[in-house]
Specification:
Distance between the termini: 33 Å
Number of domains: 1
Pathway: Pyrimidine metabolism; UMP biosynthesis via salvage pathway; UMP from uracil: step 1/1
Order of helices and strands: EHHEEEHEEEEHEHEEEH
Number of strands: 12
Helix content: 25-40%
Catalytic activity: UMP + diphosphate = 5-phospho-alpha-D-ribose 1-diphosphate + uracil
Shape: globular
EC number: 2.4.2.9
GO molecular function: GTP binding; uracil phosphoribosyltransferase activity
Structural class: alpha/beta
Mean pLDDT: 93
Largest sheet: 8 strands, mixed
Function: Catalyzes the conversion of uracil and 5-phospho-alpha-D-ribose 1-diphosphate (PRPP) to UMP and diphosphate.
Length: 216
């Protein structure tokens, strides 16, 4: 299942426009905050699909019937670019467990690249709901490898992916490799360059959020 959060007009469309805009995106604080906002909207939408249980709450004047999440999800993110989007999810799922994965493109001299995963820190994942944040879903290869890496720590019951911008090519790859994963994105672009960059996209989300890195 793929949900494009900008299919219908909402503030998400404003925020996507700002993170793409070459003038506005240079404001790092604003760029991070817009990604955070997209994460917050995605968290709300995902929350509507989770399991709730009945609970009675004591108020100053009596007993109120209510519904609360039966189980907190695990929020996973790919360092470093995924941190603002992750924070948006965490703002809403503020009791959630968290997982962090280091996944990056290791570039070769011929222009090709491999996905390198060096680090993982996560709680128990067996039969849990896992929400993975990655601002740019381009080829989908790093995401699929991340999911496989997480499964070595336990088999989640449900996996949701949140991306600010996704490429149709990457979405198709993820769906072929992981057909049960639900993808939530702020926008979908059609073009992917030979080097694996989304067009029109927004550039390098990690550099825009935290500064240009020297490592390739």
């Amino acid at each position: 299942m793929v949900i494009n959060l900008s299919n219908e007009c909402s503030l998400v469309c404003d925020w996507i426009s700002e993170i793409r805009d070459v003038q506005i995106q240079t404001d790092r604080m604003r760029f991070r905050r817009n990604l955070e906002r997209i994460g917050e909207i995605a968290a709300y939408e995902i929350s509507r699909q989770l399991v709730y249980e009945e609970k009675e709450v004591q108020t100053p004047l009596g007993i109120a019937p209510s519904r609360v999440l039966k189980e907190q999800p695990v929020l996973a993110t790919i360092l470093r670019a995924g941190l603002p989007l992750h924070q948006g999810l965490l703002n809403y799922f503020d009791k959630a467990d968290n997982a962090f994965i280091s996944a990056y493109r290791k570039h070769n001299m011929d222009g090709s690249f491999e996905i390198s995963l060096d680090y993982i820190s996560c709680p128990e994942l067996e039969n849990r709901v896992v929400i993975i944040s990655d601002p740019m879903l381009a080829t989908g290869s790093s995401l699929v490898k991340t999911i496989q890496y997480l499964r070595e720590e336990g088999h989640p019951r449900e996996i949701h992916v949140v991306a600010a911008i996704a490429c149709a090519v990457g979405i198709e790859y993820v769906q072929r490799s992981e057909p049960n994963v639900k993808i939530w994105c702020g926008a979908i672009d059609e073009e992917l360059t030979a080097k694996g960059y989304i067009v029109p996209g927004l550039g390098d989300a990690g550099d825009l959020a935290f500064g240009t890195k020297v490592q390739m």
